[in-house]
Prior knowledge:
Layout: E1 4-10, E2 13-18, E3 21-26, H1 30-39, E4 45-49, H2 58-67, E5 71-73, H3 78-97, H4 108-128, E6 134-138, H5 145-152, E7 157-161, H6 169-172, H7 178-185, E8 190-193, H8 196-209, E9 213-215, E10 218-221, E11 224-230, H9 237-243, H10 247-259, E12 264-271, H11 278-291, E13 299-306, H12 313-333, E14 341-345, H13 350-359, E15 362-365, H14 374-382, E16 389-393, E17 406-408, H15 413-424, H16 428-444, H17 447-471, H18 475-487, E18 491-495, H19 515-526, E19 530-535, H20 540-547, E20 553-556, E21 561-563, E22 570-571, H21 580-593, E23 598-602, E24 605-609, H22 617-633, E25 638-643, E26 646-651, H23 656-664, E27 671-676, H24 682-687, E28 693-697, E29 706-708, H25 711-722
Parallel strand pairs: 1-4, 1-6, 4-5, 6-7, 7-8, 8-11, 12-13, 12-15, 13-14, 15-16, 16-17, 18-19, 18-27, 19-20, 27-28, 28-29
Antiparallel strand pairs: 2-3, 9-10, 10-11, 20-21, 21-22, 23-24, 24-26, 25-26
Bound molecules: GDP-alpha-D-glucose (GDG).
GDP-alpha-D-glucose (GDG) binds at residues 30, 163-164, 233, 269, 271, 304, 306, 347-350, 353, 370-375, 378.
Amino acid sequence: MSKTIIVSNRLPVKITEKEGEYLLNPSEGGLATGLGSIYRQGYNIWIGWPGLDVNEEAQPIIKEQLSEINLMPVYLTQEEINNYYEGFSNEVLWPVFHYMSVYARYEQIYWDFYYQVNNKFRDAILQVAEPGDVIWIHDYQLLLLPGMVRAALPDVAIGYFQHIPFPSFELFRLIPWRVELLEGMLGADLLGFHTFDDSHHFLNAVTRLLPVNASANVVLMNDRAVVAETFPMGIDNNKFELLSSDPEVLKQLDSLRENFQHTHMVLSIDRLDYSKGIIQRLQAFELFLQMYPEYIEKVVLYMIVVPSRDTVPQYKELREAIDMLAGGINARFRTMNWHPVNYFYRSFPVETLSALYNFANVALVTPMRDGMNLVSKEYIASRTNNTGVLILSEMAGASKELIDALIVNPNNIGAIARSLYEALNMPEEEQARRMKPMRQVVSKFNISHWVKLFMTRLQEVKQMQLSMLARRMSMEMQKRIQRDYKAAARRAIFLDYDGTLVGFQRNIDMASPDPELYELLKELSDDPVNQVVMISGRKHETMELWLGHMNLDLIAEHGAWQKQKGAEWQKLSGLTDQWKQDIAPILETFTDRTPGSFIEEKSFSLVWHYRKVESGLGELRANELMNTLRYFTSDIGLQILPGDKVIETKNMEINKGKATLAWMQDREFDFKLAIGDDYTDEDIFKALPNDAVTIKVGSQVSAARYYLRNYQEVRAFLRSLIS
Ligand code: GDG
């Protein structure tokens, strides 16, 4: 039976050692709760580091204890923790991915250990994984792992979810090992990110740095379609709703009410981290007290900072800066019975958090960057009476969903101070008007919904890959086609040229046939049973130059020109090119604005090429041009064809499908074959009868029955037919 394997850096368990005895405490974090429905069932398992340095004798014992709750440990040495975890994960990936690249230290030893530890995780997975299993890998500590597992288990389903942001390409490219990281990630079948921007940045980095094809959110890694998508993570909202009426919480709530009788509470909860904007938040609060002195003795900032990484110098400095600033504000504004900042550097039980979520009039969540930020969602879920105001940074993933919060730029301390004033003065109806839709979002898109969506999508991606695989021409299919080919008495063979028989060239005139191709076409057309038709979008002059002397029928410019072998070129009658006067100036404007682009003129079409334009700019201009052309061409019988780095405008009447049908008229064939790679070849595939062998080059969606990977495979296939 197949199983699901969850993998993350940390296991959802806290192990403590007391006089040689080890105590296991399952953690109650959001992710652990959400995935609990999965990993606790059957043979499913969660693999990760148990979070402490365990001596060798104790390792098998703990492993045994963990296996009882479906957990499997990967033990790390202190050196591995220093370099893989503290080093590469937290001093390279964390700062760069949070747009704080000045903090990054690109040490080779960090990378070496990162690679080594990812390999260690791979070995652990391979001990338990079998074909048919589903593996779900979590977060930035394990970016190489999907690729490593893929190499060992080519068919297994692998999902990857990134909990922190994926930065813009300009940031990501700074990392010396950027290519290896992307290749590792692309070992997955489905990659999930919190926001659209994150997945977009990822896809952008992939297409800029790797020689792969991507269309929309699908990247083709050889034959495997890899999908990158947005899955905003939710929380266990039921848990927080229920906590709001838990007796222990109510008790703590009572004492908060007593202690803060005449004071509003602004709540702030984060782990100690420079990405969380804690300094700016304190500055904003100080400014608020200065701007609105009427709030002196009327409001407190209740600030919990959970200890984290404070042996690392930057974190130690941050901690000292927070201490200073909080102390400074208190020294400046405090009165005999009031402290403006109630600052705690420690963690609290979840009941205390719940009481605070329930009590605080305002939650102030202003990270500089945050993948999602669950605290903001927990505050919303806890507000069962629909009061309270959330002030949320636009740099937190959550701001894309919680749009009814007061959204602020965390660098704009003036705006934060004003938002605080607005929040504290917001009428209850307005609070409810904002809170209700946010509560609906948090409740619907909860953690189990998130898990379900991700797992379902992963299955769908696997299905899509399988159906692509079914169309991929196997040796067996080739043999069957060869038999039909041999048995046939009259064969029609339609071949597209660019991308089908030759590769893509930066210079369009460089794609002339090579000796091997000439030889192949000669052998194919020498067989008296074969009628070979070269059907291309190229100019007829070019086709004449390259192929005019061969024993082939030629169709040029998508069907505008035809030539029977040995005869003269014939132009399709009744066509006009008057429209060029209107369209050419538009294309010229775009060419003037876009270095590297150029126009190609054919008898009945104008083509704007952007293969030499800076990547990104070309696509942008092509989009703009498409929109402009659509506006001008809608009522004058023209068709616009976006192709591989080209946009072609041509007479509507011309297309390869019509040309194919016209050529077939009054002729009988018992074997029909068509091979093509681009959009315009789809018309041929559709025009041919069902018994035709139609082959798409490249694995995009197509009307063809089969596909081959590239022009080399096409040549090998044709060769197999004639040999
Ligand atoms: C990463 C991404 C993304 C906090 N203090 C206490 C406590 N907490 C709990 C909160 C919340 C969690 O910790 C913090 O979650 P965040 O989402 O805010 O941040 P990260 O830990 O940095 O998580 C982040 C997340 O992954 C999920 O994908 O949202 O952007 O950085 O659940 O309640 N819990 C207890 N005591 C505390 O004192 N018990």
